[in-house]
Amino acid sequence: VIVTRGGEGSTIYTAAKTYDIPLAPARDLVDPTGCGDDYRGGLLYGLQQGLDWEVTGRIASLLGAIKIEHAGTQNHGLSRADFDARFQETFGFAL
Fold this sequence. Notes:
The protein is α+β, with helices and mostly antiparallel strands. 44% of the residues lie in helices and 12% in strands. It has 3 helices and 3 strands; from the N terminus they run βββααα. Strands 1-2-3 form a 3-stranded antiparallel β-sheet, with helices on one face. α1 (35-48) runs antiparallel to α2 and α2 packs across α3 (80-91). The protein is globular and about 40 Å long.
């Protein structure tokens, strides 16, 4: 079970453990439309790549933060290099 809490981050509950996923801070708060979609996209990506829940949740959190910085549903672009750099800056470790 995954519970998102907006500006309070999210919590991932598995049979074995609970993971508190920190908020990835947004640089600007522009439009929340589509943030949940980006969050779920990050979850799906992490699961497909076989990443653990802590990393997967952080990917999801950061994608939601990046989305809220842009107007519209999914009108923004993002390179892998830019995402990786921001992930390291935000969470202190590289993917």
